[in-house]
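Quick one: structure tokens for this chain, please?
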Amino acid sequence: MIFALFIPYSKINGTLGFVPMPISYFVWVVLILTGYFFTIIFAKKYFIKKFNSWL
């Protein structure tokens, strides 16, 4: 996956037709994934507290 992130910034981007993503895209991805992470943690703690077990 890391390799795929660097392809648009390399010399082969013109050959493949890739365009580099703006930095704001990566900021939004990190924010969304962080929000998802904390939402899942909250939901798991709530579920365990309510049903006294995890699945």
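Helices lie at 2-6, 13-16, 23-51.
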